[in-house]
Amino acid sequence: MHTVKNGILSNGCRQYLSQIRRQIILELSNFVSKIAELRLLPQFQYTLLSSGKRLRPILVILSGQCVGGDKDKLMPLAIAFELVHTASLIHDDIIDGDELRRDVSTLHRKWSVEDAILAGDAMFALAIDLAANFGAEVMKVISQSALELCDGEYMDVHCSLKTATQQEYFLTIKKKAAALFRASAYSGALIGGGSPFEIESLSRYGENFGIAYQLKDDLLDLTSSIESIQEDLKILRITLPLIHLHEMSDLKRREQLETHLQSLFEREQNSSLTAVRRIKRMLRESGSITYCKERITEYVQRSIDSIMPLKENDFKSYLIEMAKSLIV
């Protein structure tokens, strides 16, 4: 077992990721230029060429290169996954009523809900068109991951803190967040020419990486600025720290938590901010923040263990470093 500690990316890994991101952005720009006849072109440019980590396309390429695949051959497949991911974000923003993403207006706020829905649908269609060049198995993997993503989003939307369990939460993020990471790694390894064992190993890496990534994202949402936390709690996003706090609390503390959450909808700003501070304190005192950090480490460990049997090369090392960088 490869013991994990909080990892800082090596110079080699940072340079590799920076180079791959630049290539992905260039490829996205070229792709957008080829669909200039679409009336949705401005919406595509706005979302696809915006800032982003590009983790899913990076995972396609890294997984493929890890088993000896060619980066240029993998790039169109990577773009297909970025299209699916971007489409899902557009639809998520509509569902959640978010006005900002990465500090800029969401697509439905800048244009309209109708435009945003159509742009997301078009991106799914274009992703399928790209994936079709890689055969039926890749098509099936992408469509299955998109279906899981939708099912996970439905579970998330209809989740209630009073009835939520950790088991239900992990199933939700396995579908909503990890499915596309798993599919990215699987497809990259498949097209890269990996053996069945290598493909399965990288697929498990992608799933566990995706779960750890979502856990970290949830944790950061609850440990960022008071104002950011306030907006997240207002839409009552059910995250692991909140579920853990609810499970660890007696009836009185549960009632206090529910009262604080209700206060977020009051017009009085000071009352709302006070409620956020009290919820943050309850999360710390219950050990819920620490518990979430421990689960992140657990899934990072699982992701690394998944690929430890694979042959040593720089790309495997970069995958391990990327996983370690999620530790908080």
List the helices and strands and how they pair.
Elements: H1 11-33, H2 41-48, H3 55-66, H4 71-96, E1 100-101, E2 104-105, H5 107-110, H6 113-131, H7 136-157, H8 166-191, H9 196-223, H10 226-234, H11 240-248, H12 251-263, H13 269-285, H14 288-307, H15 314-324
What would your notes on this structure say?
This protein has a two-stranded antiparallel ribbon with strand order 1-2. The model has no long low-confidence stretch (mean pLDDT 90). The protein starts with 10 loop residues before the first helix and ends with a helix. With 328 residues, the protein is an all-alpha fold. Helix 3 packs antiparallel against helix 4, helix 3 packs antiparallel against helix 15 and helix 11 (240-248) packs across helix 14 (288-307). The protein contains 15 helices and 2 strands.
Count of all domains: 1
N-to-C CA distance: 20 Å
Q: Which structural category fits the helices and strands?
A: mainly alpha
Q: Largest sheet, if any? A: 2 strands, antiparallel
**What fold name goes in the CATH topology slot?**
Farnesyl Diphosphate Synthase
Key terms for this structure?
mainly alpha, globular, Farnesyl Diphosphate Synthase, 328 residues
Please give a quick description of this structure:
The chain is mostly helical and 328 residues long. The protein has a single domain (11-324), classed as Farnesyl Diphosphate Synthase, CATH 1.10.600.10.
